[in-house]
Structures are given as C-alpha cells and as structure tokens.
Amino acid sequence: MVYNETDDNVDLRLCQDFGLILSVFSLVYLVICFPVGLCYNALLVVVNLSNKVTMTMPDVYFVNIAIAGLVLNLVAPVELLGPNFTRWPIWEYNNEIYITLLILFNISSLVIMYSTTLLSLDYYIERALPRTYMSSVYNTKHVCGFIWGGAVLTSFSSLLFYVCNHVSTKIIECSKMQNKEAADAIMMFIGYVVPAVAVLYAFVLILRIRKESTPLDQDSGRLDPSIHRLLLASVSVQFILWTPYYMILLLHTVAGAPGSHSSRQQHTIYVFLRCLSKLLAFCSSFAIPLMYRQMNKNFSHKLQRLLKRLHCGDQSCPHEHSTVQQVVT
After folding, report:
1. C-alpha angle 283/18/36, rounded to 5°?
2. How many whole angstroms separate alpha carbon 1 and alpha carbon 7?
3. pLDDT score recorded for residue 6
4. What GO terms fall under cellular component here (predicted)?
C-alpha cells in the first residue's frame, strides 16, 4: 500500500478487484498471446529473410516490425510476472532492470510506430510512381537501419530523465533532472504525435491517388491490392493498441501521477489504467504478425518454399528456380 493511513473497505476492495483483473489479463496474455506472437514474429522474419529475392518493400517494413515485436516478447514476461502486473509476482526487479526494460520497450515502440509510418508514406510513393528508387527494397533496407539507430538516439533524451528519476540520490548531477513528466512528454511527441500526423497525411494522399484512375494502375509493377488492405488494417490496429499507452503518458505529462494529494481510489484507477494500456501495447506484437500471415497472399508460398527447402536438405529442390521466377514476376 502506498498510503500509511487506515484503508477504507471500498478502496481496499477496489484495489483487490483491479489487481485480480490485471493478473488474469496478464496470465491470459502469457498463456495465449505470448507464445503465438513469439512464433509468428520469428516465422515472419525467418520466412522473409530466407526468400530475400521475393521480398517487396512492405515485406521489409513488416520484418522490421516483427523484430521489434520479438524484443517486446522478451520484455513482456519479465514485466507481466513482476509486482506491477500480478498479485503473485515471481520476482521483483531493481532500478537497473527497470531501466533496461524501459529502454527496450521505448526503442521497440519507436521502431514499430516509425516503421508503420514510413510504410504508409512509401506505399503512397509506390502507388503514385511505381518502380521508383524511393520505394525500392534496396532503399527500404537502409531506411530500416536508420530507424533502429534513430530510435536509440531519439529515446536517449527521455532516457536521461527516467534514469535520473530513479538514481537521483546517487548522482548529484541528476538533482536537476528529476522531472519524469518531461520524459513522458518527449516520448509522447516523438513516439505518437509525429507518426500520427505523418500517417494521416499519407492516408489523405493515398485516398486521393485511389480516386484518380490513371494508366499507371495497369502497371504490372504495382503491389498486390491485398497489400493496401493489409496496410490499412495494420496501421489501424497499431494505433488502436498503442493510443491508450500514449494517452496515459499525456495524462501524466499534463496532470502528473496521482500522489499524496489524491485519493487512494484515484491512484488505484491510474495504476490499473497505466498497466492495462501497457498490456495492450504488448498485444501489438501478437496481432500484427497474425494479420500479415492472413492477409499477405505471398506469405504462404514463401513458407511452402522454405519447408520444401528444409525437406530437401543440401540437395537442390526440383522446379525451385522456376518457382522463384514466377513469384518475382
């Protein structure tokens, strides 16, 4: 309990109910979503990287998102089995582990949001000007490298505030950087506001292109129409699952976390919503690879080719070369 005064029965019952609900949600995620998300993210990465010749621009971005999803899959069990999410914690981690988990979570969130954003913008470029260098697979691979480096550098400024908020008693220089609201404001701006504006702008341009029928629509170099549905669905799901987390950051930035001046009930509700929003963010690593598996028509062909290659072993499989040519075409 955060407060020293005598607990009211209503507040105590509310705390226990919210703790039980959060524990059940965490257990359901660990039993169902975690293994499925881990398998499908790994499968998405392995299948596409083993068929590099047939990869398209969206495939590269989804592989990038899947790698970030694997990082979230590593962070999720440590957090969900800790004292913040369950009434029966297996372990309690110190400040160093907390900071490490926070670094991995923030970097993964930035990679996922910016990969989704750039996928929207590059898809518009591909729709407007097919077979251009800007939306090519080669260029996309280099862009994804910059995304990871940019995520690390971009989250560094907010990381300083988080670190100093936990070790300020050990480092004198951190005495002036104990403002956690500033760290949340930075993450809110770079991790949600900027991607949301860019995605909205890309969608406006894509819808404008779709309304204007041009001779380029018959170009064989265009991506499959199913990619457009996959793009809309994946971007929508990403923002639905990540918006509650960033809204909690916005609330913390504007009003601050409920403290001693607030009632115990408000503090309990705030902690519950904060943990629930983070649990929804973890679900993005489960939902996106499933959607990619169901909506991308080429994925099943790539998976079959990989299984045949594993079955053949070192010997070259018959008709493999013709299959590659067909998929590329």
Report:
1. 20
2. 9
3. 47
4. plasma membrane
